[in-house]
Amino acid sequence: MQARQDIIDQFSTFLQFAGDRLSGWAIDARLRHSMQTQMTELQAQSSSEAFWALYWHQHWLQAHQRKDDAVSIAECHLSAYLQESCYWAAQTLLRRVAQSSGTVCDCFQIAIEKVPKVLRACDPNHKVSLKTYSKVAFENIIRDALRQQHEINLCNEWALLLKVSRKQLQEALQQSGLGQKAIAPYLNAFQCYLAGYRLLKSAGRIHRPDAEGWRILVQLYNQQHPEESIDATHLEKQLLYCAKQVRAYLYPVVMSLNTPRFEQLEWQDEICDRQDTPLVYLIQQEEQTIRRSQQKQLNEILSAALMQLDPQMQTLLKLYYQQNLTQQQIAHDLNVQQYAVSRRLSKARELLLLALMRWSQIALHIEPTSIVIKHISALLEEWLQSCYAHSELSPPIPEKM
Amino acid sequence: MVFLYSSPTELVLEIEASVRSQSARQSQQISHGQGRWNAYLNAMSVQTVLSWFQEDYSPEARIWLANELPDLWGAVDGAAIEIGGRRFVIIPNKQLETSEFIVSQEWIDIPTWAGDYFLAIQIDPAGEWLRIWGYTTHERLKTLGKYNSSDRTYTLDATQLVEDITALSVIYQLNPNEQTQPAIQPLSTLTNSQIQTLWQGLIHTESSEIRCVLPFHQWGGLLMQTDTRHRLYELWRSPRPLDNIINLANWLQHQFEESWQAIDGFNVQPQLAYSLRQSTDATEICRARSVHLGAEHEATLVVMLEPERGILEGSILIENLPPKIRVRLYPGDRVFPNHLTLALLTETGEIVQSVQANDQAEFVQLKRFRCRFGTSFKVQIAIDQPIFTELFVN
Asked: Which end of chain A has fewer CB atoms at under 10 Å, N or C?
């Protein structure tokens, strides 16, 4: 299956999954009609994908600011448009952590729901395409969800309760079918445990309170709720119930942990990206030639910066972006501390980002501000991923040294 | 485990064991649970992040208000690191969920506190590692953040942060004077009489809730000034009940809590101290501590144990008897305030006996009582509302 080429398709069709597998593109007739109408009205039949992405994005941003309903049609078009980005984001992440996570379909669903947030966070004025920006944003969203699920799996009840918010617990208890009144004592028990845990003597690893701990917690509970009296057994029972509900609530999808790996490999080829990777996104009117030359420059700048990194940093980047190892595996393979991997890897990325920002400051007259760099960082991520994916063994060597 | 999902755009730092234990110890200085969490998590974060800043940014990096920590965390979450004129506020959070970034209003709306950059930190509550997952500026928080008046925080969705911590260093190098703050509305300085009035309200407030009692401009006004800030710290300093259960069985073995001292050092009128001693036999155990009654008014609370001889059968001790207990409060160098009561309460807060002080009295005392070994009770001092409670176990 190929990525969509036709403009109308790109803004009106959605990925279909049959179980965990991709089954095709489904056409939304309403969106298709809307695209056709807009094209005629604007006499923009020959406009590019970038034009329409920008058109609908700006439409969405304006409607969003006015808080009006027109937000919905633009959002549907953009949600359709971002299907591949979202799919690729899921795929990129799962390539790295396949053994412990869910399926592409699960991850895709987690991320595609967040389209409105991504649209709000991406500023079209910062010369990075919505597609580029959103892929990184989707990756962050999926990574967060997976990380959370993973941690919930690993931590014990007592640690779990320390890591959830009151709001999450409240929602979990509601979902378990308890009414407002029935929830209250559980929230009280939770609140008491949360405040009380720090009053206990224990530091370091989190485990079930000991007898002295329970005595203190019970005392605290009874002090805060003198109208009801509770004992340790009852309090523990309530807390364990909370933990159970939180687990069920935060981990609703039964991830298919036993998906054989070869399926992953098959999938990688299911949607191929046939376009040239759009590195720098410049507004529609700008000439193709300028754009090409800027892409080439950017590629040169980053390749040169990459070559200047020390050999260790280059190795780390390669292991991470090309071989898709996790930082855990890298540390294990190189026999270094995991914290050191995290430090060095982010330092390497920082140096590349610095080179890229310097160049855009000089060549594109872009002021280096936090809001700009948020977008440029996505550009760098895209470059790193495509650079390592397209080179078999070593990073590209700049054309001119 | 944390490294399975970490990306090069974030940074995972190790919390050293010494930092962890020091932070746990220091956090005991704060009386209430939430404040202790703040102190524990913030102390670990600020120490760990400071070392990173000093290595990666500048050896000049310093902790702001370093000598007021951990006291500050009794009310406010977060800490600041300064390099030159730039202030980096770090906000640690132990929750699994990082889809939002929540910052206390103090770091945004008090002009002298306001930060330039805000770093989002996820921290392991067991204190092994922390993860810096993004940052943002004061301006973004103020303009795009959602203000929540019930807990006085600004919340920004994670997608609105710069979810790349390496970007902060790049900006720091390329644009060290980036515009990060919009104009911040000044807070008016509080007059002494205003402060006095506010104080009356605050000393009767549960210290864990103190942050949101006053209107923000008044609360901010108190935090802005060094002297009032220091007075605030007194309100949530330990010891308080619960975290410090006073164990009277240990007293009989001559082991005492730090907060309960020998009576000699206290401002108890000599003749009274004398009469106190005279009325009791030599085995009596007597300890005292000071209690803050109000502005510069320290009273002295005294607890005396009269051990009983156990029940003997022949020469064999068959049963220990609990000691008789007496509790007295001396007004110090002033008279008792009106409506002061001293009370004995059960563990669950029911009043067993209570006595009101006469403002001319030299002291006020509870009737001598005795309770079974292992029973807990509270001694409470109230001026209309409780201002001091201590929990004992016999």
From this structure: C
